[in-house]
Amino acid sequence: MRAPDLMKAIARRDDNFFELGARDPMTTSSVCFRRLSRITVILALALVFTAAGLHDASAQSVFNQTRTVFAIGNIGGATTYPIRAYAVNGDQLALSATWRPLDRDGGAVGIGVDPIHERMFISYEFSGTLDVFDATDATPLGQITLVSPDPLNPVDDIAGMDVHETRGHLFVVDRGINYMYVFDTDTFSHVDTWAIPSGAGAYDVEIIEDLDGQDVVFLTDATQVVRWYDIDTHAEVGNQTMLYVSQGLAVYIKDNGYPVLYTGSVSGSHPPPDSPYLTMADVETGNRDSVNIGAGSVRGIAVNQVDGYVYASIGGSFGNLPSVRVFEWDTLTQLSRVDLNFGWSPTDVDATWLAFGSAVKKDSSSHPDGTINMTEEVVFEITIENRNSRPIHVLPLKDIYDTTQLTYLFAEAPYTSDDNTDDGEIDWTDLIAQRGSDLAYGETLTVVVHFQAQPEACTNQVQGQNLAEITNVEDDLGDPVEDAAGTFGYTITCQCVVDADCDDGMYCNGTEICNDENQCESSGNPCPIDDGIFCNGGETSECIEATDECAHEGDPCTDDGQFCNGDSVCNEETTACDDTGNPCDEGEECNENIDVCEAADDPPRTTTIRPTKFPSPMKRTRGKVK
């Protein structure tokens, strides 16, 4: 969503506020509280953007920051189908939750999320019905029935869907008939039905707001051609031929505004058989590429617009585990994957900036909108809910943070950390032991953690995410409980007021100052700096952070090669190198020619022989020769 769309979204929420409260399956007061808090957050963000003078792209980055990826299956008539929510941590996905609503008809096919109204929509193969859930906790909210305008061609094979966030409209397509359906995501009421101009049923749909001044809908229809249309006029705006027959669809918008298309193909739909591809096409350059993902099917695709990642759901076959995978947007390099059990055949994925309220939820009471000023103290709340059927008896927790952006301060009692080494991971061995009692079904506990925003090399703003995850959890019978995770995305602004705002506590990057443009500047590596000590030698450009000093060349006093003047010792008071003098005992004579001490001349003559003199600090040995 772009910055100008914020006020539209607020207005849309406000218009539906009281009407929504009367319809939601919860008390009116609780709905009003939830809606009011969400409106307040959006309004606060809009005011922050206005006050800071940020451009459209900056506002967009906050709302497009992907926090959660939803994956759905099964197709093929399984008795139940799973929906999984993954917390996004860089290019990795951490499982947040799994739930299994009752299956309908041929199995779940498509998923769409409205992050503003917090709605999740699920479509089914061979069905004309959509299920609606609360996107934060999977509570069922109702159903939507699609009706075809053509009695001879009823709706029976709903496929992909996507949400126009600003308008609050859900766009749904059918693989079997030539219509697209539009519904209000808040009221579930029918808005529009329009014939697809291509004359063919569609497999997937992608909405892009404000593409060169137009709101457009992209469609793929199991041919090699992807077409996109103006949402208001239904007129075709453009098309792109892909390398292979396409089903799943996602669109990434480059910095210059041009779209890059991604489509997926299913085994057997193109040669060679059983070799599905994830394909991409750059509309600006015409360049096309693909990657063979092995046996299976590429059905669902989603895009992380801010980080530049592409998510794809991969169905398994011929021994290949089904999976959700993460790719680089421009190279299609696979960055990570999450494998699923056999019997799971994920059909769609959706990426959203809405944080899923699963077994682990992360919020910030100090900065609920995620906008943080440099040097401010940030308070995160990690809320863990037991959704297991039995009480939780062992509950380890990890809070993973970016040490270049946040400095850990402390965790509030009673859940103080028992393992923190400033390595970017705060660990609690067992929260239940600190709590003093098991966590029963439906109960929650909250861990409060304090940080300070101190980003390194901050010139404008930095974006990051804080991840909380529970692993190796056990119930009261000692059985394992499924891992879960939650994230909180934030943006740290880099404007400073005084020099102290810029001090990051590091020695080796020099002294930080706040310049006239309210930006932090660093003087850089301070070495070499003369420490005024003569006997440790000259300073080098190597900086030692652990001791806040520059490395030294070492003792400047080296041996001069003379035996009879003794060792060379550094004198700090005179800043000179002093000799220890004649090494021979009283009554002996020093022989420089052979580096020995010789005894007096009365017989029998005894001579003290010194080994060849070595440079200090090696010690000499003494021997007597008769």
First and last CA, distance? 98 Å
Low-confidence parts: 1-62, 269-274, 612-626
Per the CATH scheme, the topology name of one domain is Methylamine Dehydrogenase, Chain H
Q: Which strand order do you get reading across the main beta sheet?
A: 26-37-34-29-32-31
Q: What is the CATH top level name of one domain? A: Mainly Beta
Task: Give the percentage of residues in beta strands.
Answer: 35-45%
Number of H/I helices: 5
Structural class: mainly beta
- Superfamily at the CATH H level of one domain? YVTN repeat-like/Quinoprotein amine dehydrogenase
The backbone outline, from C-alpha atoms, is elongated
DSSP strand count: 47
CATH architecture classification name of one domain = 7 Propeller
Q: Percent of residues in helical segments?
A: under 10%
Overall pLDDT: 78
Question: For the report, how would you describe the main beta sheet?
Answer: 6 strands, mixed
Please give the radius of gyration in angstroms.
34 Å
SSE arrangement:
Elements (H helix, E strand, L loop, with lengths): L3 H12 L1 H7 L4 H25 L3 H9 L3 E5 L10 E7 L2 E8 L8 E7 L4 E6 L4 E6 L5 E6 L12 E7 L4 E6 L4 E6 L5 E6 L8 E8 L2 E7 L4 E6 L5 E6 L7 E5 L5 E6 L12 E6 L5 E5 L4 E8 L4 E7 L7 E6 L5 E6 L8 E5 L7 E5 L6 E3 L3 E9 L6 E3 L2 E4 L5 E6 L7 E2 L4 E4 L2 H5 L8 E10 L7 E10 L2 E3 L4 E2 L2 E10 L18 E3 L5 E3 L16 E6 L4 E4 L15 E4 L4 E4 L9 E3 L4 E3 L8 E3 L13 E3 L1
Parallel strand pairs: 26-37
Antiparallel strand pairs: 1-2, 1-24, 2-3, 4-5, 5-6, 6-7, 8-9, 9-10, 10-11, 12-13, 13-14, 14-15, 16-17, 17-18, 18-19, 20-21, 21-22, 22-23, 25-27, 27-33, 28-35, 29-32, 29-34, 30-33, 31-32, 34-37, 35-36, 38-39, 40-41, 42-43, 44-45, 45-46, 46-47
